[in-house]
Amino acid sequence: QVHLVESGGGWAQPGGSLTLSCVASGFNFSRYSMNWFRQATGKEREFVASIASSEYTFGDNTRSGDSVKGRFTISRDNAKNTVFLQLNSLHPEDTAKYSCTRTVFWGPGTQVPVSS
Predict the structure, then answer these.
(1) How many angstroms separate the CA atoms of 92 and 99, rounded?
(2) Are 106 and 99 spatial neighbours (Cβ–Cβ below 8 Å)?
(3) Are residues 2 and 16 in contact, defined by beta-carbon separation less than 8 angstroms?
């Protein structure tokens, strides 16, 4: 059974940084691309970043949404079945619940409030 659990969320100041983690279980982690999405209260769900499986060897294996490009970085540790999202230069509009996903499977999410 696919299981995804995020952690690392919490209050941050504008300009601050956080590192989110998502531990996966129940499937062969290295063979799947992984994604981060976010959803702010009253807004549509938004794509944040994705990282390809370890089988992808054709250059940059990551993609980012336009609103976070250059500020957020996705990475993975296949030995630990974990995908990370490094959030830098946070803005108040980054306030949202952040969820990791694998195809149709979603974790419960972790809240990131950004305010001064």
Answers:
(1) 18
(2) yes
(3) no
Tokens of 5: 């659990």
pLDDT of residue 98: 98
The set of residues, in sequence order, having a beta carbon less than 8 Å from that of 73 and lying 6+ positions away, is: 49, 62, 64, 85, 86, 88
pLDDT tens string 56-77: 767 779 999 999 999 999 999 9
What is the Cα–Cα distance from 98 to 107, expressed in whole angstroms? 9
What is the C-alpha separation between 25 and 13, in angstroms, rounded?
32
Quote the percentage of the chain above a pLDDT of 90. Answer: 92
